[in-house]
Structures are given as structure tokens and as C-alpha cells.
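Researcher: Structure for this, please.
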Amino acid sequence: MRISEAAALVLATRLLEEHGAPRDHAILQARVLVTAEMKGHPSHGLHRLPRLVERIKRGVIDPEMKGTQRWRADAVMEVEGSSGFGPVVAMAAIERLAPHIPDLGIGLVAVRNANHLGMLAHYVEAIAAMGFVGIALSSSESLVHPFGGTRAMLGTNPVAIAVPTAEEPLVLDLATSLVPMGRIHHHAVVGRPLPEGWARDAEGHPTTDPVRAQAGAIAPFGDAKGYGLGIAMELLVAALAGSALAPDVRGTLDSQSPCNKGDVFILIEPSLAPGLPARLSAYLDAVRASPPAEADEPVLVPGDRARRRRAAASRDGFDIDPRLWEDLNAISRSRKIPAFEGQRS
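Model: Predicted structure, C-alpha cell format:
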């Protein structure tokens, strides 16, 4: 079924408010989930909402918490997330650090014990909108096997980078695994087999069964290169945030464990060289205009496809499993939200 952005935001926000989230916290968390859907990443979208509600009920999310911030140095803030919503804790820290960046040149936020962030693009896009270069890193449970191995030992350890230009920023958002575990879960929910090479089962054998893969391990992207980057990110986040390493991380994919992964955000003042933003935009346009390998598939730069999908979803709505929509309405204690409530004609 197809739903509107407005209807999705209304239902997600209301559901979180009904379970104790202050309105501004509920709106931010809902926006992160709905935007993931609109960009074509349902693995980080509304199917995570029932788990968030269950985690609130079990006391492993404190929907009112914004995190406790402490300056470790002039340009370094550390944050104890205290089981708050990941987006709420992260944005509160970023917004506090941002006014200092013009004087500092660079600043870093290291967060531990906050809940799942969703797509990291949300945070670097927000940083780029402030005029800064943004870098975001996060860790997770052991979900990825090392290159040459079969057992999950690393997190998916995503990284996102945004660079402001005279037009839209360049936005890169990727996991160091071949795919995020949320995508494996989404395949399991909709009953879709995995492509070969994505994952191994608990015994270390290659599998296309998403249920068996959830108990096994995902491959690193690019074999040794993705493994090397993933293990470097593993240590980097733990070293900066003081958070758990992958074998001891819990709470991003279950409903009962406190979340103890780490997150790192870096804000950098770009060069003031004359005409730099325009030169960056011109370069990206030149890349887009370069000869494509397939005539009907023009060259894109990171962020283009997600922006196009989001614009189309804002205009036309987006598809969602009707069972999930009914389940979300059933969880809510208020009246049912029609799929296109609030959508512009």
C-alpha cells in the first residue's frame, strides 16, 4: 500500500507520544524513521517503530532523556546517552557544539549508551545545513565476519560524510558491511531470500535464508578493504567514546537490552577560499556529466539517488507493507490514521 509522508509522520509521532515521549523528541525520532522510508531504506524505517515502543515499555529507552554532556577539551564533548533516543541525544549534542566551530575550526562529539541512530545521513545533512563538513560514525553488535573468517566479530560500523557546496551537499552514507543487518531483517519480514554472498549462517555456511542469516554473519563490503575499514572504525569509535566493542554490544536490534554502542560526530569549518563552494558544485556537475557506462543510466554522485527518492515520496507517497501499517495503527491507542491523511492534493 502507498502512504503519504504526512500520514506516516502523524502516526509515528503520535505512537511515540502515547508511550511517554515528549512531543519534540517524538517528532525528531519519527522524522528519522520516515525519512529513511522516503529515501528507499525501509530497513531503517517504520518497521523499527514497534521495537522502539517495546523498548520504552521494557525501560531500556528513556524517551525523555537528552543525554548528559561534558566538555572533555575545548573541542571535544563527551555524552552519556543514558538510554535516550539516539537521534535526540545526538542532535542535542551537535546543536550545542555547532556554535563553537567557527572559533575552534573543528569539534568532536563522542556518545555512548544512546539508542539506535537510524541512517547516519540525517546527522551529516544537518551539519552540512549549518555550513560545516560533517562526519558521523557508529558501532553495533557483532554482525560482520572478518575477511577470511566465518564468525561475526565486527559491527556493521557505518560512516557518513557530508560536504557543503554552493548547491546540495555531497552526502555519503554507507556501512562497512556488505549490507546493514536491518536490511537482512527487512528481507525476513517480507519473506524475500537474500542474494548469494551477503551472509553466512550460525555454522558459518553461506546462506540466502534471511532468518538463518540473522543468527550468523554478514560479509564485509569489498572483502579485505571493507574488513580493514570496519575494524579500524570499530577501534576508533570505542577509543573515542569509551563504548563497548562489538562482541559486547547489545541493544540496537533487540527489545530487551540496554544499548551500549558508541557514536562519533565531527564538525569541521570548511576553507574560506574565495569561490570554493561554487568550485565544489561545478566539480560534482562535471562528474555527473561524464560519459556513462550505460546510455540510459547517467552518472550520479553520492546523495543524488536518495534526494530524488525523497522528493518523489514527498510528492507521491511511498510504499509500505500493509500489515505493518495495520500493526502500527493497532499499537496506537487513538483513532486509525488513513494512509493519505494530511497529504496535499
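Researcher: Any notable elements?
Model: The CA atoms of residues 86 and 167 lie 29 Å apart. The mean pLDDT is 95.
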